[in-house]
Design a protein that fits this description.
The structure is a homodimer.
Chain A: E1 15-19, E2 22-23, E3 29-33, H1 37-42, E4 48-54, E5 57-66, E6 75-78, H2 80-86, E7 93-98, H3 105-112, H4 119-130, H5 136-148, H6 153-166, E8 178-182, H7 192-201, E9 206-210, H8 220-225, H9 234-244, E10 246-250, H10 260-270, H11 275-288, E11 293-300, H12 309-325, E12 329-336, E13 344-345, H13 347-358, H14 366-382, H15 391-400, H16 403-415, E14 426-431, E15 436-438, H17 443-452, E16 462-465, E17 472-473, E18 478-484, H18 487-499, E19 505-506
Parallel strand pairs in A: 1-6, 3-5, 8-11, 9-10, 11-12
Antiparallel strand pairs in A: 1-7, 3-6, 4-5, 4-7, 13-16, 14-18, 15-17, 15-19, 16-18
Helix pairs in contact in A: 3-5, 4-6, 5-10, 6-11, 6-12, 7-14, 7-16, 9-16, 11-12, 14-15, 17-18
Chain lengths: ~500, ~500
């Protein structure tokens, strides 16, 4: 008889890793044959998580079973997310066994059943999220618990601290480190490169990490990538910021808040956006980036994330309070969130708007410049380089003098070299079928139109608006121009536009 | 200009349906190439749900994208769950578009944010679950809401009524219709065929629908399938019950509570088991099956679902109260839930135990017979064919006289013909390495051992216990016998046993 106390599951022959090119949206998925040892032991009808070990690394993935000849009996197919996390080479061998239930599910259940969690509890949950040990439905349960039984201020502070603790953290020698954030994305609201240029040109330190698009036609990192490299490691970021006072880099290349991507993905699917989670997500990244002072743009409008001035005020109060508990000075600005900003939608079209503002082109979009100046003004005042009330004048001066543009060029060079945004191979003007006035623009449809043209997968793709809400147009006058890599994508976008126009022209 | 009010998304060229043999555990998954129109419009990094229409039917599935040559550009690969729901033929053409957010997510959010739901609200959610319009994470949010903010009695009653309303429903001419249920599965606790035989042999009506295994080595439907056909449609069930007074059929073949499978699957993954949901799940199926009187077996033990007599009493009170609101007379029996019942684990091994009891074999497992008689006794008393306190004697008499066996044979014949449980191609005795006493048996490990031998996928597979907890054994004496289709499966099971024995022999 063997010893009944030994609890280790069986560890059968190793299996060959196969990369199957499956994009599973952040969920690590492994596919094995229905007749493999794991599918036999767990049953192919039960949702099972497996642990895959190869080359000294280990990941947890959701198991799906496949019949027939797609895989050989001793192969295991990995989704791209699983493949990247495991970091193995094609054909490498792996050991596979059923994964134990993640320990932190006890804590998720505690919260679900009305208990409170402290920083250590949140950190345990975050580590399991980060390592893929919690499944998407388990993460959904955690997020739902925080919606049904909202985190109080102490819990929100604990969650924020935990999010900082499980990621990497930057430190700077400057006593004050500036940062900015925008809560709810409006298409084209690409103020960051302009704000960073103005603030750094004024002698303040602003090391900005930005995200790529998840469902939008462009994230700040996508737009910035058309102008300079953005995938920098921590030493490279440090060199850029020490030389130029600022940067605009992709935050995903450093691990400032590694569990947050999973949360964002699933919050979007279950369409909840609990305030405690939002506050922790925003502030943890700022603290991890080493910021001391942050200005937060809260666009308010019917299709923005925040829909009323009252909601904006409540959110601002929470952000300020929790920020203060983490030693972060937070200033919130409620801004107009009714329509798109600037003209371009998509990485390169938005980058051209940014360049036009920084290069003081006569036809640069005024709304984008004004929004960037308003945010930069507060940072200049908070940072002590402008007296209260004088920030806007100084910010305009940095723009008008060309100092902001010179600083932006220097930052791009330090990041690896300024470049021109790519031009699309194909463009197509959509014109007004009759004269009239441009109706309210639907941000959601406009974003989808730009995505059908190929943004952000193609950095050149998207659209450029030729009109704004309320403009008077004549028959045949251009409304917007589509940019795409191929005629086929133009056709996709036109087909969508013909059925679901983002705006109309009223007689 | 087209009319801006038209909201229909684009409807591009049809795509060819490809069956990919993927077992995705109840989640309908569709795989398209990263360069298809839907992946372009939605972005391959966002979790997207799509609507697939073919041959007049329509399903909603989760979209995953695949790179490279696995699919042609105009093909869409469907998981088995998606394939079955759509009911299409291989190679059929389908129209594919992004699915709108399910309307009932508004109700899920209402519950999450502290609101109450009524029967119509629950029905809307259930219809979306059933149609696959809610994703697994969205279902997890709904179930989490019910754990964090528990359903009160009125909500539980509303949910139960809604579960009945969205499914099919049986009606019987008999004034009293009996039913039974067991809350927490113990391996081998296969009382149902025996109870049905005794109760029907006593002149009562008991149309029993049972489930297949999800994570256990056998469900009642799997076990019964080794003795007679169990996949009967509603008219066939009616014919059997009208002729014989009882049946034991697979509930999945009729749609009595079609959303429940999805709930069970996800509750298991997030490891919550909210009482309101459990009560609604159990009682809705009984009401839908047309029952008027139901006896519910609540096994209580350290590895059973219910762990204390207090918890059993609270659950019994809720079941009785909500049952009463739906016109269902509920009687709960707390039973011993410490260890496995009978000898066999797996469809055919359990069926042989059932046959042994019904055929009055001298070596029939006494515990199985006693548990079945206790449940049948209450039904006989409730049904008015035995006076209070006389039910057990009558039940034993039905067994001893052979009436129950005769009735069971008649039911099997009516369902399509009595058959012998299949014998496994391979068997292997595991013997004691030394003399001693059998320790406590771990139900979970025992179940996994039977599954590694091939149960329930192979109906013949599983194991037969030769000893019980506390038995004295000599060296070399058989402990249990494995049954499998091949030597390989025997080896899998032995490997697991050698590392994780379900019990030991103490000196």
């Amino acid at each position: 008889m063997t010893d009944p106390a030994r609890a280790t599951p069986p560890d059968p022959a190793p299996m060959r890793l196969v990369r199957i090119g499956l994009q599973s949206q952040g969920e690590a998925i492994a596919i094995m044959r229905t007749d493999c040892h794991v599918c036999r032991s767990e049953g192919v009808h039960a949702r099972t998580r497996i642990e895959i070990r190869s080359g000294g690394r280990s990941i947890t993935a959701r198991l799906m079973a496949v019949e027939g000849s797609f895989l050989n009996p001793h192969e295991i197919g990995l989704s791209e997310d699983a493949w990247t996390r495991l970091g193995a080479d094609a054909g490498a061998m792996a050991r596979v066994r059923p994964a134990p239930q993640a320990d932190s599910m006890t804590l998720v259940r505690r919260k679900l059943y009305g208990g409170r969690l402290d920083e250590a509890d949140f950190a345990a949950i975050l580590r399991d999220v980060q390592a893929g040990r919690l499944s998407d439905t388990q993460i959904a349960a955690f997020l739902s618990a925080g919606a049904a039984l909202p985190l109080d201020d102490a819990e929100t502070t604990g969650l924020t601290r935990a999010m900082v603790a499980v990621g990497d953290r930057l430190a700077w020698t400057a006593p004050r480190v500036m940062d900015k954030h925008c809560v709810g994305g409006l298409p084209g609201n690409r103020t960051t490169p302009i704000v960073v240029a103005i603030v750094a040109a004024s002698g303040l330190v602003i090391p900005k990490t930005s995200s790529r698009a998840i469902t939008s036609p462009a994230g700040t990192a996508d737009t910035m990538e058309t102008l300079a490299p953005v995938t920098l490691d921590l030493p490279a970021i440090r060199r850029v910021v020490e030389a130029e006072g600022g940067c605009v880099v992709w935050g995903g290349a450093v691990r400032l808040s590694p569990a947050d991507d999973a949360f964002v993905r699933i919050e979007r699917e279950i369409d909840i956006d609990a305030e405690g989670q939002l506050v922790a997500s925003v502030l943890s990244k700022k603290v991890a980036a080493g910021a001391t002072d942050v200005v937060i743009d809260i666009p308010v409008g019917p299709t923005a994330k925040v829909r009323s001035p009252e909601a904006a005020a409540a959110l601002a109060a929470r952000l300020t309070l929790v920020g203060s508990a983490l030693g972060l000075n937070v200033t919130c600005l409620a801004t107009d969130g009714t329509g798109p900003v600037g003209r371009g939608i998509g990485p390169a079209p938005e980058a051209r708007d940014v360049l036009a503002v920084l290069q003081r082109h006569p036809d640069a979009p005024a709304d984008l410049a004004e929004r960037a100046v308003a945010l930069a003004a507060r940072l200049l005042e908070i940072g002590g380089v402008a007296a209260a009330g004088d920030g806007a004048a100084l910010a305009w001066q940095r723009l008008e003098s060309g100092d902001a543009w010179a600083k932006f060029v220097a930052i791009c060079e330090a990041q690896g070299g300024l470049r021109q945004p790519p031009e699309a191979a194909e463009t197509h003007d959509v014109t007004a079928a009759h004269a009239g006035r441009v109706s309210v623009i639907d941000n959601r449809r406009l974003a989808r139109l730009a995505k059908l043209a190929g943004a952000p997968g193609s950095l050149a793709a998207g659209l450029t608006l030729a009109v704004r809400e309320g403009d008077r147009v004549e028959k045949g006058q251009p409304l917007f121009c589509l940019h795409a890599d191929s005629r086929g994508e133009i056709a996709y976008a036109l087909d969508y536009w013909s059925r679901s126009p983002a705006f109309g022209v009223a007689d």
